[in-house]
Amino acid sequence: MMRSLYSGVAGLKTHQTKMDVIGNNIANVNTTAYKSSSIVFAELMSQTTQRASGPNATTGLGGVNARQIGLGVKSGAININITGQGSAQSTGNPFDIMITGDNFFVVSNGLENMFTRDGSFYVDAAGNLAMTSTGYNVMGWQVDETTGNIKQDTVTALRIMSAANMTYPPEATTQANMSGIIDKYDTDVTSINGKVVNLNFFDSLGYEYTARFVYRQSDNVNEYSLELEKILDSNGDEVVSGEAASALFGAASQQMKKGSVSFDDKTYEWSNGKLINKATKETMADLTTMYSGGVLQAEPADGCKLDYTDADGNEQKKTATIQDQLDAIAAAYGYQGSTDDFLNLLYDAPTAEGDPTVAGQLSVRQLLANLSKNTGAPSPYGADACLPTSGSFDTVGRNFTGVRVNFDPAKGYFAGINGQQTQTTSVLRLSGLGTDGNFADITIDFSETSMFDNKGTSTIGATSGDLDGLGTGRRPGDMIGVSIQRDGCIYASYDNGMTKLLGQIATAAFANASGLEKSGDNLYSATMNSGEFDGIGVDITANGGYMSTGQLEMSNVDLSSEFTEMITTQRGFQANSRIITVSDTLLEELTNLKR
C-alpha cells in the first residue's frame, strides 16, 4: 500500500480537527468572556530509508544526507488566547463586572474552587453574590469586625445582603462643632433674647433631638455668653428646659451687661408682697405663697392660692403655679416671656432708698427672696437691700449657666473658652439625661468661630460631628444601594447617609494561565501546568488590573481571522483529499498491470 494514502488520511483528520476548533470559536463569538483557541500542526513521523553518512577522507567521498519519507501530519497543540482582552459590553447592571487584566474570578460549587472571566453575577435568595448561569458562589474576603478592614484570608462566599447588612445601626452623637461669624451689630445678638443656635443630635437609639443654645453679647466686646436653653425631641416637645437644661452645659458664671429695668406701675402695683393688677384688682403673684424665710418653695400639689376681691368687690377664688407667678413678676418689669433672664439680672443694691452706697451686688432672684422677708415694709430697702417696688433700676450684669466664648479683639479670631486660650471645646453633659443611658456626652469645638463684620448678620451655626466629620451620630439606616469599586471592594449605602464595607471580591492569578483546563459553563480548573490556587487569591490591583461594573467582557474571537483560517483549512482538506484520489489512481494502475 502506498504511504501517501495514509499521509492524505492523516491530513484529512488533522484539518478536520482544525475545522472543529474554528467552528467552536465561531459558535462562541457572542459567549461572555470566551477565549478563542487556535491549532498548530506537527508532522507525524518519518520513515528513514537510509541514514546520513559523513564525508570519508580516505576514499575522498562526501557525506550523504539521510533519506526520510514523511508519513503524515498531526495536531501539534491547541492553544487558548486566554490573555487576550475581550471588548467591553455595557449592560447597566451593577452586578455585571468586567476584569481588565490577566486575573480570574474565583467561584465555588460548594466542593471546589473554579475560575472564570464571566462576571455576570446576581444576588440569590440567601443574599450571596453568585454566577447567573450556574449559581456558583463568588468568592472573596470578609471584613474584620475588629478593624473594619478587609482581612485577606481563605476565600469564602460573599454574602453581601445578609440580615445584618440590610440595616445600619444607630449611633449617639459624641462630637459637634460651632463655626461661622458672630457680628457684634447683629440685632439678634444684641437683643435680650440673644442669637439662637440649634444643634441637632442623635441618641444611641437613633432618635433625633435639638439642643437650643443662645449667644448673648457682653459689655466686653470680645466676649459672648453661650447658654443651653432647652432640648426638644423630634416632635418639638421639651425634653428638658430652664435650670435643668442649663445644668447640662458649662457652669455658673457672670456676664458684664449694663441695662435698665422699668416697673410698669401703670398696670401693676405692689402691696404687702403681692403684685396686683390695678385695673382688675387681680393678684398676679404673692411672695408669701412662693417663699418661706427667703427660700423658694416647692410646688404645692393644688397650686398656690391667690384669692382676691375684684374691681367690682366680688370675691374670686384662684390658684396659680409658682412659675406662673414668677412669669407675672417678670412681665411687670418688661421681661414677658423671658422670666429666667429677668431673675438672673444683677444690680448694685443700695443700702437705703436714695443712698448711693452699694450694699451688695444681688440677682433679681435673690432680691425677690429678700423682698419676701419684708412684705410689710412700704419701701423694702433697709438692711436687706431689696428690689424697688416701683420706678426703675439699673443692671450691671447677669448670672447665667454656660460658657464665655472669647475672641481676639484686634483680629476677631476665636481666643478660647472662659478666658482660657488653650480651651477650644466644652462638653454638653447629656449622659446623665434620662435613666436609660441612651444619651452620650457631646464635645463641642468652637475653634472655627470668629467675630468679624458681616453687614450686621451672624452666620454662626452648630453642626454635629467634629471638624473631620467624626462622632456625628445617626439614625438607623436601610440599605438603598450596593456599589463595587475598581479593587473589588463591595460597599453598601444606606438612607441615613452611611456606607459600609461588605467584603472584597478576590481574584486568582496563574503563572501560566494558558495551562488552565476548560470545564464548561465558562469555567476553568487549575492544572499542574497552570499552577495551583493557594486558596487566598490576590487583590486585582496588585497586578495593575481593575474591575468595571455595569460591563461584561465579550468574546475575543476575531471573525475575520476565523473566516480566513476556515478558507485555508478548506483548501488544505481538499488538497489532502486529492492525495487519496491520486494514490488510489496509482494503485488502480498497479492492479491493472495484470489483466
How do the helices and strands line up, and which of them pair or pack?
Blueprint: H1 3-27, E1 37-43, E2 46-50, E3 67-70, E4 73-80, E5 88-90, E6 97-100, E7 104-108, E8 113-116, E9 121-123, E10 129-131, E11 137-143, E12 150-157, E13 167-168, E14 175-181, H2 187-190, E15 195-202, E16 208-217, E17 223-233, E18 238-241, H3 242-246, E19 251-262, E20 268-271, E21 274-277, E22 283-286, H4 287-290, E23 291-292, E24 295-296, E25 304-305, E26 308-309, E27 315-316, E28 319-320, H5 322-332, H6 339-343, E29 345-350, E30 358-363, H7 364-372, E31 392-407, E32 414-417, E33 425-428, E34 442-450, E35 461-464, E36 477-484, E37 489-494, E38 499-505, E39 507-508, E40 517-520, E41 523-525, E42 546-549, E43 551-553, H8 559-591
Parallel strand pairs: 14-34
Antiparallel strand pairs: 1-4, 2-3, 5-43, 6-42, 7-8, 7-11, 7-39, 8-41, 9-10, 11-12, 11-38, 13-36, 14-35, 15-16, 16-17, 17-18, 17-31, 19-31, 20-21, 21-22, 23-24, 25-28, 26-27, 29-30, 29-31, 31-32, 33-34, 36-37, 37-38, 40-41
